[in-house]
Amino acid sequence: MADSRETLTINAFVVGYPIKHSRSPIIHSYWLKKFGIAGSYKAVEVSPDDFANFIATLKQGKPGTAVGGNVTIPHKQAAYQLADRPDALAEELGAANTVWMEEGELHVTNTDGYGFVSNLDERHPGWDRAERAVVLGAGGASRAVIQSLRDRGIAEIHVLNRTVERARELADRFGPRVFSHPQAALYEVMQGAGLFVNTTSLGMDGTEAPHLDFSLLAAQAVVTDIVYVPLKTPILKMAEEQGMATVDGLGMLLHQAKPGFERWFGKTPEVDEALRSLIIEDM
Ligand code: ATR
């Protein structure tokens, strides 16, 4: 017989490869403690070769195994492919970051877009009055951002990328309100935009960030970054120096964690300043 502690404890995980830099255990452990829930949330390192096995074990649902968890790089696409029930968000992105078992089936969703807009809602309410948004970069992370901006009803979403084909692919995927441009079109596209989102590693991968003239944006515009290490990325610094309102990417990480916690542990957590400080201390 399983010991009673085991059957009462709800277990969840974050799985990735590598995983040691993940801050998700800090977030979920903070909330578990706050609610006094007998639960655990642990980081698990699983290589791409072993990921299907990891999911197979989860699906067996033996006592003491996890009810679900988060999935991070490089397993987001595989998690979607192995799902029995992907929701519409994961389906459109072809990638999942949150998974849970329900009646023997693996459900998956993607909460990155929710995290992105919730961070803006919290730090800069009214941001969604922007009619035009500029998204710099067309990698994996950019997709969830574009999806969430479209679903929020932003009228025009302009995606610019060094490799323009990748931006084009996203414009095709996300529909008629999403437009693609080469990165060189920034000057023209930034004119009058109410939101500027950086999803690239510009200025952080050994390259120098090009000078951007944020005064081209609308007067009430906000500049945000999805990268949160460092908290002030070169792009955010530049925007701040030019007097722009900015929102850092840390809140996206914190907010994207909420739906998973609610699903696995049955309580709705808050993103508060104490949690933000915990993560900053760990950086
Ligand atoms: P992620 O999943 O984090 O978005 P990614 O898929 O590797 O990572 O995408 C990185 C993004 O940053 C891409 O849009 C990339 O542009 P390319 O598609 O042209 O590669 C962009 N990027 C990275 N370094 C860049 C640089 N020095 N200048 C311009 N864009 C850069």
TrEMBL record:
Amino-acid positions noted as binding shikimate in the UniProt annotation, renumbered to this chain: 22-24, 72, 97, 112, 228, 256
Annotated NADP(+) binding sites: 137-141, 161-166, 226, 249
UniProt keyword list: Amino-acid biosynthesis, Aromatic amino acid biosynthesis, NADP, Oxidoreductase
Pfam families: SDH_C, Shikimate_DH, Shikimate_dh_N
Enzyme class: oxidoreductase
HAMAP family registered for this protein in UniProt: Shikimate_DH_AroE
Function according to Swiss-Prot or TrEMBL: Involved in the biosynthesis of the chorismate, which leads to the biosynthesis of aromatic amino acids. Catalyzes the reversible NADPH linked reduction of 3-dehydroshikimate (DHSA) to yield shikimate (SA).
Protein's name in the database: Shikimate dehydrogenase (NADP(+))
Organism expressing this protein natively: Agrobacterium salinitolerans
Protein encoded by which gene: aroE
